[in-house]
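User: As part of a screening pipeline, I want to sanity-check one entry by hand. Below is the sequence and the SMILES for zinc ion. Please return the complex as structure tokens so I can compare it with the automated output.
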Amino acid sequence: MSFPSEAAGKRIRWNVGLINAGQDKIITFMKYEILNIANKKMEKTLESVQGDNAMACHATVCSRKTAAAKSEEIAGDYCARTCIHAEMEALEKYMKLVGSALNNKEMKNDLVRITVTSPPCLSCAFVLELFGVLDKIKTTKDVYKGFTSSWKWPDGLKKIADFDPGFWLSIQAGFKDSGCTDDDIVKMMVKIIEGGGGSRVRHE
Ligand SMILES: [Zn+2]
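Assistant: Here is the complex for your manual check:
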């Protein structure tokens, strides 16, 4: 038997205890840390024009590259059908247009600001921190603490190469020796945050 086929047939052993520990680290971060981090990092000087109506939330991205190219404004709106929040839609569009072609540091230099007409929720705050752009947020007031039951993580925001390397490393470290691949970790992280960060998910 040749070596590659042996390697392909090799059974991966997962360590459930270590997988749980990795998940608990994300849950703890969502429960006790992200709120304060977000409230400290965001700029909250945007004038409220619609009573912070989350259902009419609108987000715009200001980027050096798109401004220089005089491209169309990168914007997003809350969508009840897709359950994608305004700042997530705007960030997804920006990553597709500009951000993904840059490394994370270059992306952060290019992205000037994300303006959101009502404060981000905790799930959005988590994703923004994962990309290292929470300090680019300009909104009206502190993070929205209530759990939005049907929040969806956009598919265009799941690429590891786009994440802030430091933050991603700390997530990855939580799963050390668990047998999980990076893809496994991303899938679990997405499910946990889509569930509001309240509980672990089954590892598949
Ligand atoms: Zn949100």
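Points to compare against the pipeline: The longest helix spans residues 16-41. The CA atoms of residues 101 and 157 lie 13 Å apart.
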